[in-house]
């Protein structure tokens, strides 16, 4: 489970409680990459998770994730706060998965301009995500990209997530070579077949990233 929780536009803590990952296969090897293998032949190999895990952030810092910003931990999980211009705290997995299932229980952060996100992203910019806008209290957006090709930004879909800033919901991404399924509280809200993908279908090893930022901040 993962909890995202915020208070104000520029002081919104994002709370992560726990996360569960179930893998179909191990990997071997917000939109950025340290080394894109489509542009360089010298990228280092990616570390594989290679197992199913559950992380409870209420137990404190996890050795499965690296953090930017200054996370704090308590019995509810980890809190990532946007306190000033330029803040975009993120937890990033130290490993990659090649297909698998990610389940997160969370509350999204409120606040005008505040965006909370859960992103699966590869080094060559394949991406699958959930995003919450701080002024949208009843919905969440699902999205995907392949090789960084955003097109006309026509791949997003909106889904009902009642009172998502105050009510715990479990959000799932189930990613296989044939299909991506997005679920809320165990109910499928979107399913994308690979052959129906608008542009390249995501199919390279991905890290798991959780973050929060101010959408109107020119630093982000």
Structural commentary:
With 220 residues, the protein is mainly beta. It has one domain (57-213): Jelly Rolls, CATH 2.60.120. It contains no helices and 16 strands. The protein has strands spanning 12-16, 18-23, 53-56, 65-68, 72-74, 77-82, 90-93, 100-106, 114-122, 127-133, 139-145, 157-160, 169-175, 179-184, 187-193, 206-214. The strands form 3 sheets. The protein has a 7-stranded antiparallel beta sheet with strand order 4-7-16-9-10-11-12, with no helix packed on it. Strands 3-2-8-13-14-15 form a 6-stranded antiparallel beta sheet, with no helix packed on it. A 3-stranded antiparallel beta sheet has the order 1-6-5, with no helix packed on it. The two termini are 27 Å apart. Mean pLDDT is 81; it is low at 1-12 and 24-31. Pfam families: Glyco_hydro_16. Residues 1-29 form the signal peptide. Keywords: Signal. Residues 37-220 form the GH16 domain. This is GH16 domain-containing protein.
């Amino acid at each position: 489970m993962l909890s995202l929780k915020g208070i104000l536009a520029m002081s919104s803590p994002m709370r992560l409680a726990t996360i569960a990952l179930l893998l179909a296969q191990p990997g071997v090897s917000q939109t950025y990459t340290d080394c894109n293998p489509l542009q360089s032949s010298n990228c280092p190999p990616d570390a594989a998770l290679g197992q199913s895990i559950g992380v409870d952030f209420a137990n404190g810092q996890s050795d499965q994730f690296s953090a930017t910003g200054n996370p704090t931990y308590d019995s509810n999980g980890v809190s990532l706060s946007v306190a000033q211009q330029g803040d975009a705290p993120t937890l990033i997995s130290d490993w990659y998965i090649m297909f698998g299932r990610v389940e997160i229980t969370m509350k999204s952060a409120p606040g005008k301009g505040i965006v909370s996100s859960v992103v699966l992203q590869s080094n060559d910019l394949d991406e699958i995500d959930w995003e919450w806008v701080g002024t949208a209290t009843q919905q969440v957006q699902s999205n995907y990209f392949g090789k960084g090709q955003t097109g006309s930004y026509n791949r997003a879909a909106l889904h009902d997530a009642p009172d998502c800033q105050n009510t715990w919901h479990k959000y799932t991404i189930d990613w296989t070579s044939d299909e991506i399924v997005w679920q809320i509280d165990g109910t499928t809200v979107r399913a994308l077949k690979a052959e129906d993908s608008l542009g390249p279908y995501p199919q390279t090893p991905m890290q798991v990233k959780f973050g929060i930022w101010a959408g109107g901040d020119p630093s982000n």
